Amino acid sequence: MKETISIKAIFQIIKRHLLLLISTAVVGILVAGVALTFLITPMYEAKTQILVTQTVQDAGVNNIQTSEVQANIQLVNTYTALLTSPRILDDVANKLGGDYTAGKLMGKITVGSQHNSQVINVSVQDEDQAQAALIANAVAESFAKITPDVMNVNNIDILAKATVAENPKPVSPSPILLIGGGAVGGLMIGFVIMVIRVIFNTKFKDETDVIEELGIPLLGNIAKIPENHEEGWK
């Protein structure tokens, strides 16, 4: 049966299946809520900041020249790589009593730098914020101890140590994104079910379907007789 669907017909189909779409969206929200409450472990974050600069060798120079600042900024990429190197992380693992390996620590640590800055940001995520702060501070301390021997620099300042908030909030998962994703996912499943129902529905909807399918003229139709009229005729 050759059939074209107008925008109006699409809205009518959606209207007929509105309860289905709402139901699947609600189910998606409930599933996301259960996953958020019972299945997904919340992660907390602790941050520390490190500043690395090189000492000016010429005693007659009182101010660091722009070229020296730019050279330090270019070295930031090297410092960020060093922060997650086995040499640093093995030292951190030893400080933490062997509870972590270098590979496990690497999965918890994120290192970045502010744009055009010599400040290095170290972020650590863990199930316990106190443990995340402990790891972040241990990384900063190990970096300050090992880097002077590796990079021949002696100006390493820990600008801000990681601290534990009184009422920490998890950084992941995001309840809004998870529940929103559950609603969208449920709604998409509802649309798929709706489309399948429409495609496999072979019933004639009106007289035009009969004409198009059978290719014969319509002689007439019989209106539906209300039930109360049937009772009166009896």
Automatic annotation (TrEMBL):
InterPro entries: Bact_polysacc_biosynth/exp, LPS_length_determ_N
Transmembrane segments: 18-40, 176-200
Membrane topology: Multi-pass membrane protein
Keyword Thylakoid included in the entry's annotation: no
Main location, first listed in the record: membrane
Subcellular compartments: Cell membrane
Superkingdom field: Bacteria
Record carries keyword Membrane: yes
Occurrences of domain Polysaccharide chain length determinant N-terminal (ranges): 3-96
Keyword annotations: Cell membrane, Membrane, Transmembrane, Transmembrane helix
PANTHER family: FERRIC ENTEROBACTIN TRANSPORT PROTEIN FEPE (PTHR32309:SF13), TYROSINE-PROTEIN KINASE (PTHR32309)
Homology family: Belongs to the CpsC/CapA family.
Name recorded for this polypeptide: Polysaccharide chain length determinant N-terminal domain-containing protein
